[in-house]
Specification:
The protein is an alpha/beta fold. 45% of the residues lie in helices and 14% in strands. Strands 2-9-8-7-6-3-4-5 form an eight-stranded mixed beta sheet, sandwiched between helices. Strands 10-11-14-13 form a four-stranded antiparallel beta sheet. It is globular. The structure holds pyridoxal-5'-phosphate. Pyridoxal-5'-phosphate binds next to α6 and α7.
Amino acid sequence: MISDLDQILSASSGRMKRSVIRELLKMTQRPELISFAGGLPSPESFPVEQLRELTNEVLDTNAAAALQYGETEGYKPLRQLLVDRYNQSGALKLTLDNLVITTASQQTLDLLPKIFINPGDKVICGLPSYLGGIAAFAAYGAMPVGIELDQHGIRSDLLRAKLAEMRQQGQKPKFIYVIPDFQNPAGISMPESRRREIIDIAREFDVLIVEDSPYRDVRFSGEPQRTMLELDGTGHVILLGTMSKVFVPGFRLGWVVAHEAVIDKLVIAKQNTDLCTSQFVQMITHKYIERGYLDENLKKIQQSYKEKRDAMVAAFHKYMPKGVTWTEPEGGLFLFMTLPEGMDAQALFEVAIKENVAFVPGTVFYCDGGGKNTLRLNFSFMSKEKNEEGARRLAKAIEQMMGK
Ligand SMILES: Cc1ncc(COP(=O)(O)O)c(C=O)c1O
């Protein structure tokens, strides 16, 4: 190895942080351990037989194109299909110029700061918010400005006050990062009224909104909400979609919908990153949606995750000591737990691991270092039985911490 590696590394490489969650997951590989720590969809939801059928079909009919480089913008029939689905309600009039396929949403979360962020720029995010988003923005030198959530998502009163304060100081954030549907990690879904408030504020202060919505279609109760993209309709919203939670995360397939001027810049940024997303994967995914398999399988995923959430929540009601609260999400993969004030979820993690149950301490999702008494729990990966047993073990660990 060269003698001065540390000296030649870029400033941005220094800003990159190893994911705390990935490090935690390494500690949770023991088979006897029930892990609620990861963000994984259930492998039972992977449509292996349909994939075999579609893969063979693509190879039999179109191998040359499937295995070749493709356009950076993405495979046209897939883009058209997605655009048509967004236009279905009649509120949007998107064209192909409004959508680019990406190598799943995490790539989009890296491309966005690549085109928008200079070191020191501010980005608004929720307290708490998806760690992978905050980390990607921070790698380009973005400074996160946290806004507290209530049971409806980012608090619009605090957002307005913060933007007004920043304006007085001659500052403007590059964008507001929101996860309106079954937020990761909080499990909260924004009602339309809150979505509209945030859009109004974004327009008033002339700021972009990044609407990251990987869980949108995993709704198993409550009323479906319109996307902020649809509610806005004036080009202030950049919507991130992905197949990861509704099909297979291993395909690494997602997309961005935005004003064509933003898409144009994203396409150039993506060219430098990976030239294109796999054509093979895009062609299979296109057939998967076109044939109706996505919509058909979504119902099964929703039902299965509902049962898993119900099993976990019922066990919490049965076993949790007084003073512990949790969100009961209408969809998605996570719920968020709050311990009594003063209790430390990081310390609880050590106790819980001994009881063979794991979770992610919530503080990693707070860009201000808060949330010490919170934890994120995934309910989609383990079976109903394990969700129940894990909840019992977690309650036992919390009682130990409380000295009971
Ligand atoms: C809010 C949020 N955004 C983006 C991602 C990344 O998803 P993808 O697999 O599409 O890269 C995740 C993954 O868990 C997420 O929770």
